[in-house]
Amino acid sequence: MAEMDGRLICRDLKSNSETEFLPVILISATHNVADTLKQSGAPNDFIAKPFDIETLVSKVNEQLVT
Asked: Which end of the chain offers a freer environment for a tag, N or C, measured as fewer CB atoms within 10 Å?
């Protein structure tokens, strides 16, 4: 993303009372983003690129259940 990092968008979503409940799965080629899951305003889950479709479907299903 050119203008805004996905982590910043996620932090904005999680800090807004109208959107904080929305599940966010961050997909990134940067494998060290997993540390972001421990921070305030973190995404609900993370997938590192490249990934297979089964992983994506599984993570989406996990978020739909919660």
From this structure: C
